[in-house]
Amino acid sequence: MYKKIVVGTDGSATASAAVDHAALLAKSVGATLHVIHAYKPMSSIMPADPSITQPDPVPIQKGLQEHAESICAQAAERARTAGAETVTHVSAASDAADALITLAEQVEADLIVVGNKGMAGVRRFITGSVPNRVAHHCPCHLLVVATA
């Protein structure tokens, strides 16, 4: 069945619901759960105007990385508590859908688990949603969990 499952988290309650579901599934089938958190790197959040004084990017980037690792570690701890073998990943991809797809390709995942938050409403037509974008480019099976 499934040997490698990928799930993303942003630390929200709905992402935690997806992680919990993925962890229970991973435990039940003996799969490894790969938990990923994607964050916007320093270069994507800095103003492009050279006349604006730029802060030192090194401590800011380090803080972003540490925060991302903390979010991912908290989700992984939830999954481990549920009994799932868990591996964590942090990505400076700035796009959660791309990070999920890339990781699934890298680890040769059998399944990606996402929550359904963002799949409804007007915004999904303008910017799309992570579940919708993953569904269109997923390299493996996809499970959309009712989290909203």
What does this structure look like?
The model is unreliable at 119-127 (pLDDT under 50). This protein has 148 residues and is of the alpha/beta class. It has helices at 13-29, 42-45, 57-81, 96-107, 123-126, 130-137, and strands at 4-8, 32-38, 85-91, 111-115, 141-145. The protein is globular. Helix 1 links the parallel strand 1 (4-8) and strand 2 (32-38). The two termini are 27 Å apart. The longest helix is centred in the middle third of the chain and has 25 residues, at 57-81.
Task: Explain briefly what this protein structure is.
By secondary structure, the chain is an alpha/beta fold.
String of helices and strands: EHEHHEHEHHE
Spatially, the strands of the biggest sheet line up as 3-2-1-4-5
- Record field, number of beta strands: 5
Helix content: 40-55%
The CATH class name reads Alpha Beta
- Span between termini: 27 Å
The radius of gyration computed from the alpha-carbon positions, rounded to a whole number of angstroms, is 16 Å
Shape: globular
Low-pLDDT segments, ≥5 res: 119-127
The third-level CATH topology is Rossmann fold
> Which structural class is indicated by helix and strand composition?
alpha/beta
What's the pLDDT, averaged over the residues?
86
